[in-house]
Amino acid sequence: MNNSFTPRNRGGRGRFTQNRRPFRGQRSGGGGRNRSQSRTISHDKFVNLNPSVHEDTVYTPMHTFADFGFHSHIMDNLTKKGYVNPTRVQDESIPHILAGKDVIGLSNTGSGKTAAFVLPIIQKIKTQQTRDTVLIITPTRELAQQIQVEFKEFTDRMQLYSTLCVGGLNIYNQVKELRRGPQVVIGTPGRIKDLVNRGALRLENTTTLVLDEADQMLDMGFLPDINHIISMLPRDRQSLCFSATITPGIKRLLDTMLTDPVMISVRTSETGEHIAQDIIHARTKEAKLQELTKMLSRDNFEKVLVFGEMKHSVQKLAEELTRLGFPSEAIHGNKSQPQRQRALDSFKRGRVNILIATGVAARGLDIPNVSHVINFDQPNTHEEYVHRIGRTGRAGKPGQAYTFV
Ligand code: ADP
Ligand code: MG
In the chain, what is the greatest distance between 2 CA atoms, to the nearest angstrom? Predict the structure, then answer.
């Protein structure tokens, strides 16, 4: 797998240019302004027949990873991961984070925000003389897990430790792990709060805070928990916030949470412009299923993420497809955390090539090489749509999305 973000020639596709036309019907920066008119997203918003080249593939960074002065083990681990150059959000935010500034990083999904905060944090805890710790808060359990995996890959042989504090997993194991004093805690708001209240997680030395996917965290109603957690942190700390979108709600949160932040905004185009998108007409549920199986039979549908609206319909669709000879896994809120993780792992590792998910369950997940996203049920908002299709076309790869209408 070519994981580098160096410019590449993609035959047949136009080079990314700054002033190309926004894709049909899309208001720039339009995000979720029409939230109240859900269910009436204009169908042209699901169509993009002329995708641009992924912008990261043509970005020339200002720094190399070596320029950041990272510890030699970090450099080795970057090489092992196949990272050649920083992505744009990494290029622009890492120097400020290393300088100890508060940073707000806004960039498209799939543009490498995780490493943008994980790498400088590792450098910070490796070189500090104190026992200060880091708290990373994410909206979903899977995302927390994914960040921990990246943290472990980047800290290979460095003797730095992390604990995952998410709901759905045994809390006593987490309490036990916390007693060993990990440098980094990664978790979801509810469980973190729970562990703080039990006295298992102490935050008085937590001088670095990260909020990942902040926009979604507010959508999911975590604000009171987050405020509670933040009130326990030392005032003198470094706070970082990464997000694909910024809404007035997040802006207000950030104003209270960050001190004199540097704003890195590298959303040079609407998220998803590099993803080919089209609609499929189907009148009935049966017709949808028939069209879906037709598509899944095609060779190029290698790794397909299908979005449904409801927990039970997602489960039913996975069972139906499996019965029809298309082995599928489902991930939704009615499954236990280990079940969700197993389903996701089998999809990530290619044991099944079809994953059916609800939008919330799949937010922020980085699953390599998803070739197609299919909206079996339409999303309620344009923002939700952008998040869903952002699961394909990641890390400079092309992607394709279909929406049933
Ligand atoms: P985001 O949080 O912005 O949605 P992720 O941090 O999940 O994006 O990264 C998306 C993908 O890009 C991941 O597979 C990650 O390993 C890969 N990636 C990130 N930075 C680089 C880089 N500098 N070089 C190569 N691949 C990268
Ligand atoms: Mg992310």
Answer: 65
Q: How far apart are CA 110 and CA 271, in angstroms?
A: 9
Cβ of 330 closer than 6 Å to ligand 1, yes or no, is no
What tokens does 391 get? 């699961």
Query: What is the distance between the alpha carbons of residues 265 and 24, in angstroms, rounded to a whole number?
Result: 23
The CA distance from 100 to 315, in Å, is 46
CA 322 to centroid of chain Cα atoms: 28
User: Which stretch of 49-58, 60-69, 305-314, 331-340 has the lowest confidence by average pLDDT?
Assistant: 49-58
Q: How many residues does the chain have?
A: 405
Is ligand 1 within 6 A of the CB of residue 393?
A: no
- Whose C-alpha lies nearest to ligand 1, atom 12? 395
Stretch (H or E) spanning 277 = strand 275-280
Q: How many helices (H) and strands (E) does the chain have?
A: 14, 13
Do the beta carbons of residue 267 and residue 106 sit within 8 Å? yes
Segment 112-133, tens digit of pLDDT: 999 999 999 999 999 998 999 9
Tokens 């920083």: give the residue: 86
Q: For 358-379, write each residue's pLDDT tens digit.
A: 877 677 677 878 899 999 999 8
- Set out the domains of the chain in order of their start, with CATH numbers: 35-54+274-404 (3.40.50.300), 65-265 (3.40.50.300)
Distance from residue 111's CA to the centre of ligand 2 (Å): 8
